[in-house]
Design a protein that fits this description.
It is a single chain. By secondary structure, the chain is mainly beta. The chain has two helices and 14 strands. The strands form four sheets. A four-stranded antiparallel β-sheet has the order 4-5-6-7, with no helix packed on it. A four-stranded antiparallel β-sheet has the order 8-9-10-11, with no helix packed on it.
């Protein structure tokens, strides 16, 4: 399985290819070719049976990317994940951490964004949900002045099959970090 960019003088395209199929996943024409690998779909990583693609919504910083999960047989979309907080990088116990629901109309109005965390096991396709820190995450977000709730997440690691999540937040105009432990 290969995913690669190709270019000529008036277009560029991201191609998925294996022994059985060849599919153009994303392309730019002559008016947008300079945006190649700055916005739009790009390869992120590969897991057994799966491909994770990143969709950069704008060029530059500050708006979280969205992610799409494809199968690695014919590049069919399995799951539109939206914004994620973290994805594992190894093929052993692959998973994704994200907010369960991503109704961004609610978070912009501070009136009910759901801070439930979803841990998606990519080996089984099953999700576990954690509300243990939902209220704390909501409070930290509202106090922080951050634009996106994803910005709370400073560092994520794995120790003894537990996710160790470091949250960055503000208390009385002073930045602090808090560790949260989630079962994986």
């Amino acid at each position: 399985m290969h995913i690669y960019w190709s270019m000529n003088c008036d277009s560029s395209w991201l191609t998925f290819e294996n022994r059985n199929s060849k599919v153009v996943l994303y392309s730019f024409d002559s008016t947008t070719i300079e945006m190649t690998q700055k916005v739009g779909i790009d390869y992120e990583t590969h897991y057994p049976g799966l491909i994770l693609l990143r969709n950069r919504l704008i060029s530059g910083c500050c708006t979280p990317s969205e992610f799409i999960l494809l199968n690695d047989v014919n590049a069919d979309t399995i799951n539109y994940l939206g914004r994620i907080l973290y994805h594992s990088t190894g093929i052993r116990n692959p998973f994704i951490l994200k907010y369960r629901f991503q109704d961004y109309d609610h978070y912009e109005n501070n009136d009910g964004f759901d801070f439930t965390l979803e841990i998606l096991d990519l080996s089984t396709g099953k999700s576990n949900y954690s509300t243990k820190y939902s209220k704390q995450l909501r409070d930290y977000y509202l106090q922080s002045g951050m634009i996106y709730p994803e910005e709370l997440f400073n560092d994520i690691g794995i120790e003894s099959d537990k996710l160790i999540v470091t949250i960055r937040h503000r208390i009385n105009d002073e930045w602090k970090t808090t560790k949260m432990i989630l079962p994986k």
